[in-house]
Amino acid sequence: MALYPKPAEGSWTEHFPGVGTGVLSYEDCISPEFYEAEREAIFKRAWLNVGRVEDVPRVGSYFTKEIEVAATSLVVVRDLTGQVRAFHNICRHRGNKLMWNDYPRAETAGSCRAFTCKYHGWRYDLTGKLTFVQQEGEFFDLDKADYGLVPVHCEVWAGFIFINLAESPEPLQVFLGAMVTDLGGYPFDALTERYDFTADIRCNWKIFLDAFQEYYHVPVLHSQEATPAARPKMPGFEAPYYNLDGPHRMVATSGPPRRLWPTDYQYPIEIATRSGLFGPWNEPDLGDDLPGVNPGGIKAWQMSNFQIFPNMEILIWQTGWYMLYRYWPTSHNTHRFEGSLFFPPARTASDRAAQECAVVMFKEFALQDAGMLVGTQQGLESRAVRDDFPLNDQELLVRHFHNSVASWVDDYQRAHPVSVTR
Amino acid sequence: MTEAVLPADFSDLEPFAATWCLATEAERYARRMASTMAELEAFYQAGFPRIGEALGYCDKFPLDGLPDDAHHLLQLVHSLIMVAMCVEIWHQPNVIDGADAVLDRVAEPLP
Amino acid sequence: MPLPAEFADLEPYLAWALPTESERYARRLDSSLVEMQTFYDAAFPRLEEAIVYCDEHPYDDLPEDARTLLRLMQSLVMVSFPVEVWKQARVPDSGAAYLTVTAEPVV
């Protein structure tokens, strides 16, 4: 087959030192003990994307974020100076959840000038400072300066809001590394028309993420992405470019836009709405210089999929739109998937219908992954096969991801030998 | 005889309006899953050939100022996109190998 | 005649004549604020007269029409907080919480 040349080492996998070509264990997706280790070693130490700056458009705009894997809830807010801050969403008086609306366990969003606890009326300003205590004179030597909201490290890169639960994490841009931060000039802020999805899925977060970072499965599980006429012409998948940078990784694809394919290689609804699986045909003018999106400089670049450790994915299409995925563990064998699709604002009904077609088709095929991967979890949990899963060169990113997770857990456990054991 | 909700040029689609003029993806997806293939195909056969004209009609207005009848027509186009998945791709209402998975669209621009 | 003659104007609201708190609470949650407001506006001005009418009889021997009237007034109490205070059927900030009455005197 070999549509594209391999690196000099003979394969992409061997091109990157230390990745290895051996068989893989999936114990990291079925072990409750490993999950406990991940919670401490990864989710309380890595930068985690919790939103976009558009989620806090004005001074006082806030949203809450449930982070079950770290057993906490955060409130993210834009303060009076415009800075985006994050706090544990917990009142300092007696631990009540501070901001919630109809149900304490449900996320909420809104706008306020101060955070007021529903329980006893303690009030905090937008920088987390405690400003009001009901019947303050009843307390014993209470200094309000000692009882501000517990801050969480919060930094913004390219409009993406990240938090870090560690005491003193490395700066966000250092964590993200050059491959990711090179995307900083991409006009994410021009793509504000947004469709959000969420799903609770009965498999480990890494199993689902794996399906979104290799395309070896696409011609098989998603055979219907190709029309019946096109299907026989798509025997397999190869990517022209892969790259790794620290725990982060990316893959690019190439090919002509789907709109230029023969008409019987597109579904009728794609032609009727001038849109489809690969996005609307009408491309916004985002400028000629889109730094970082095609680091391999491949010809006929189509899209790049950046997997930002641990649980974030940004998938940028040449046709001028992008997707953002996040995978939030909720137990060793369940997680909540969040997916958002971002387009330029629709101006006409045709723009809207074109977006709708792309968004509907995204869901159709994502449901195949969501449906099937429950079976992967079940199969792995049988432990009928252990530590003996062969991965091919197109699954390089899967291999690198599990290696990175293991490396973070190992590092943490070496530094904290009395903590969770395997 | 109920009152027409679609522009006069699209009166042939009026029989589908009560069922398929739905504002949100959640409603459209639920209606699709609750429909038979015969129902989905009947709607598709009648509506698919009119998508281009329908969007042409709606495009005469700004998206944030659609008159009610054009708004209904656009909702019908959205439902045709939904139904096209079943008619063109799966040949059944639910996604092949989608099992019991759900993926809820929790925020979307309207209209 | 389900209600005493002088309370015939409340007959459109007979569906609210419910013997137990759980039935009254369930009906409240199933009602719109408009429905509760309409019932409240009709029944609230008659509350005192209704109590006087019922008090003419021994409580453990209420005639059927007075018993129905009293149950209607219990529902008036049920909708009064949604109408007067909450402006919605559910208690604000109550989340998914519920408190079930497991024993009560029934009129």
Automatic annotation (TrEMBL), chain A:
One of its GO terms (molecular function) is dioxygenase activity. Its cofactor is Fe cation. Keywords: 2Fe-2S, Dioxygenase, Iron, Iron-sulfur, Metal-binding, Oxidoreductase. InterPro entries: Rieske_2Fe-2S (IPR017941), Rieske_2Fe-2S_sf (IPR036922), Ring_hydroxy_dOase_asu_C_dom (IPR015879), Rng_hydr_dOase-A (IPR001663). CDD domains: RHO_alpha_C, Rieske_RO_Alpha_N. Residues 47-163 form the Rieske domain. The keyword Oxidoreductase applies. The keyword Translocase does not apply. PANTHER family: CHOLINE MONOOXYGENASE, CHLOROPLASTIC. This is Aromatic ring-hydroxylating dioxygenase subunit alpha.
From TrEMBL, chain B:
This is Xaa-Pro dipeptidase.
Automatic annotation (TrEMBL), chain C:
It comes from the Bacteria. This is Xaa-Pro dipeptidase.
